[in-house]
Amino acid sequence: MPKITFGRVLNILIIGVVLLIIGRYFYMKPRLINGERAPAIQAQLKNGQAFELSDLQGQYVLLDFWGSWCGPCRAESPELVQLNKSLASAKFEDAEGFSIVSIGVEDNAARWEKAINQDGLYWPYHIMDTATSLRFFDGKIANDFGVKQVPTKYLLNPQGQIIAVNPSIAEIQERLSTRLAN
Known about the structure:
The protein is globular and about 75 Å long. Helix 2 packs parallel to helix 5 (169-177). Helices cover 36% and strands 20% of the residues. A hairpin with a 5-residue loop joins strand 1 (42-44) and strand 2 (50-52). The chain is an alpha/beta fold.
């Protein structure tokens, strides 16, 4: 039987930590990739209206999975507001417009609505994806998109295909500014 030494124990621990980090990375990575068609979304908006993602076909769409309880999501809100202001009425060469669809992974509707108002997220498309476990993101929409952490973003082209997974706000602005009509 091999002798157990400090060096062997340390090597086993290092290998275990590396495997844990790699496993966590692949678990947290969004399931969908560029070029895939976005799954259908049928939901109720904050104002009570029915919503289908297919209604926005012909536009660039940013799907923003976030949470009122998520510090990094809330810190990003001013950038999203600015992005919406700069692109909401923009004319594109290959699209009818741009819309943000905010999908709150939430377990508390009052806290979600309060965050929307506090952060000035005044676009019309807000969906609450009710999760029974904010640890495992078990809401239907988050599950369909393979979302395991927030913020997670998908940028869709006018045909409903994913053209960017987790782009920064600056990357979205840059990508779409090249498609603006003269």
